[in-house]
Amino acid sequence: MVEFIKSAHKRGVIASIFHALFNAAYAAAVVALVMLLPDMPWPALVLILVAKWRVIAVRPRYWWANVLSNLPDTLLGLGVVVLMWLSGAWQVQVALAVLYALWLIVLKPQHKRRWVMVQAGASQFVALAALFAVSHLLPAWAVIGLVFIIGFAVARQVLTQYDEKAANFVAFIWGMLLAQLSFVAWHWVIAYQITPTLKVAQFAIIATILSFVAGRSYMAWRDDKQITWNEIYLPVIFAGLSIAVLLILSSGFSVSLP
Question: Disulfide-capable partner of 155 in 32, 36, 67, 171 (CB 3.0 to 4.6 Å)?
């Protein structure tokens, strides 16, 4: 919130107020479409895509670069709509709309490196949670392909903050890693009951934990071109214990998605 206040002073208070009101109205429009058309999520999904009209409001040669840079935010928006639609409960839908509004107003405008990493992690988590919530409706190749796109997009978003020359290649590797893990996850989808109408796939949580370790490892390497145990042992131990708990002790509070 402090960062938002500072950025508000830079833009001007009036402009910041209009920015907040517009994005709050946009989030309200998204949830309104989901509520009014409970059996048809497509209008809300189309609204998310139409809101990205500025991506192609430039010369065609810049389209691809704009698509890549806006992909994490687009994936998060689409994921929020899917989770709203699946929840079926207005309380959950309103809560997701509020969180989406906060994303648009507070988190998305931040450009510092640590906030961009938070944005990437949130995009990956929401997109994977939504994807695996409907994975039983999709063939394995479609799920694996979409997981690759999600992993590639968020990794590239982080790597570009470091001016990484091989950003696309490293992001490709991360996308492939998640895609391979998703092949196993697609055959054995375990989810956690967050609310009576909302479930979050175990794979989305594990992927987020692994992303945290990968990010800290990359930061250590960028610092002095080497990775020492002292630099990453805390994230590795945390990730190992967290994943062990998820895999071993989850049977009592997890469910299988259809």
Answer: 171
**Are the C-beta atoms of residues 108 and 51 closer than 8 Å to each other?**
no
> Can you list the pairs that 231-237 forms with residues at least 24 positions away whose Cβ atoms lie under 8 Å?
none
Residue type, 152: F
The tens digit of pLDDT for each residue in 132-166 reads: 999 988 999 999 999 999 999 999 999 998 888 88
Q: What residues contact residue 119 under an 8 Å CB cut-off, 6+ apart?
A: 72, 73, 107, 108, 110, 157
Burial 49-82 (b: 16+ CB within 10 A, else e): eebbeebeeeeeeeeeeeebeebbbbbbbbbbbb
Residue type, 212: F
Question: Which pair of structure tokens corresponds to residue 127?
Answer: 């997109």
Q: What ranges in the chain are assigned the alpha helix state H?
A: 2-11, 13-36, 42-50, 63-87, 90-102, 113-133, 140-159, 167-187, 202-224, 229-248
Question: Which tokens in the block code for residue 39?
Answer: 């059996």
pLDDT digits (tens, 9 = 90+) for 13-30: 787 888 899 999 999 999
Distance separating alpha carbons of residues 28 and 1, to the nearest angstrom: 21
**Residue 200 has what DSSP assignment?**
E
Q: Give per-residue pLDDT as tens, 246-255.
A: 877 665 555 5
